[in-house]
UniProtKB/TrEMBL annotation:
InterPro entries: WLM_dom (IPR013536). This is WLM domain-containing protein. Residues 4-203 form the WLM domain. One of its GO terms (molecular function) is proteasome binding. It comes from the Eukaryota.
Length: 223
């Protein structure tokens, strides 16, 4: 296992390249840089040894059917970060889910059970790492407390992944279609229901990502 300092240098995105012919390339570079420096993403990359040559973007008008593409198992990862109308950028949390998906293509080309298992693991590792950070520790062992609850998503472009929002009021909370009443449930029951609802929501989002992944169109050959 490489030392922490050497892995930080090796297992990362080595170049950030926005598309200069599109509007506001500086803002696009800032968006891509935020993804590259995301602590949860960096944690997954260093844990699994992912070294990505270039992180760049996809132009919506050039690839309207794609959200992401991994070329040659990490040589280039391309993400759609802009809205279809080029008047802004897609929701960061949605683009990050696509990035996790494309990182998984560094190992598995097809969207088979092996891919889905590793992709789910990566998503779980990102969420657990963030939760550990919020708790004031980077250790992922022995985490206690409530299950991670993603923030509600809104304002997503029509070309983005479908949003599954929380609905407050009426004595309960709706996550991915499952209503959770806080009064009659024990803490463990509440944790289990939140986890189940979160898992179902992530599965729906992952289905959307798969359908708009360039590696599926290439039959895994470009991953």
């Amino acid at each position: 296992m490489a030392s922490s300092s050497s892995s930080n240098l090796q297992f990362r995105f080595h170049q950030i390249k926005p598309l200069e012919h599109l509007p506001k390339p500086a803002e696009a570079k800032a968006f891509l840089t935020r993804l590259a420096n995301d602590s949860g993403i960096m944690h997954v990359m260093q844990k699994h040894g992912y070294s990505i040559g270039v992180l760049t973007e996809l132009a919506p008008h050039e690839y309207p059917e794609l959200l992401g593409l991994n070329t040659n198992k990490g040589q280039i990862i391309s993400l759609r970060i802009r809205t279809n109308a080029y008047d802004g950028f897609r929701l960061y949390s949605d683009v990050r889910k696509v990035l996790v998906h494309e990182l998984t293509h560094c190992v598995w080309g097809d969207h088979d059970d092996n891919f889905k298992k590793l992709n789910s693991q990566h998503n779980r590792e990102v969420l657990e790492f963030e939760r550990a950070q919020k708790a004031g520790t980077h250790s992922l062992s022995g985490i206690t407390g409530d299950v991670y609850e993603p923030e509600a998503s809104s304002g997503i472009d029509s070309g983005a992944i479908g949003a599954h929002s929380q609905v407050l009021g009426g004595g309960g909370r709706r996550l991915g279609g499952a209503e959770i009443t806080s009064n009659a449930l024990t803490r463990e029951e509440r944790r289990a229901r939140i986890l189940d609802a979160t898992t179902k929501r992530l599965q729906l989002e992952e289905k959307d990502i798969e359908e708009m992944c360039g590696n599926a169109e290439a039959g895994g050959s470009s991953s």
